[in-house]
Amino acid sequence: MANGIPETFNFRSLWFGRMVSIFGDRFTELALPWIVLQSTHSPWKAGLVVACE
C-alpha cells in the first residue's frame, strides 16, 4: 500500500505533466515577444504582444 498521495503513480504523473505545462507556458511568454522583436525591430509591437498575453 502506498504511504501517501505524493507517492502514487497517478499523482506523480499529474505533477510531472503540470510542471512540463508550466515550463512551456513560461517559455512561450518569453519567446513570443522576442520573436516579434527580432522580426519587426519594434519594441512597441513586442510590448503589445506581452500585453495581449
Summarize the structure.
The chain contains 2 helices and no strands. It has 53 residues and is mostly helical.
**What string gives the helices and strands in order?**
HH
Percentage of residues in DSSP E strands: under 5%
The unreliable regions are none
Overall 3D geometry?
Answer: rod-shaped
Q: Note the main sheet.
A: none
Our count of helices gives 2
Average pLDDT taken over every residue? 90
Rg, nearest Å: 18 Å
Helical/strand content category: mainly alpha
Number of strands: 0
Q: Report the end-to-end length measured between terminal Cα atoms.
A: 44 Å
What report would you give on this structure?
It contains 2 helices and no strands. By secondary structure, the chain is mainly α. The protein has a domain of 29 residues. The longest helix is centred in the middle third of the chain and has 32 residues. The mean pLDDT is 90.
What's the helix and strand layout?
Elements: H1 9-40, H2 43-52
Helix pairs in contact: 1-2
Please describe the structure with a list of short key phrases separated by commas or semicolons.
53 residues, mainly alpha, 79% helix, 0% strand
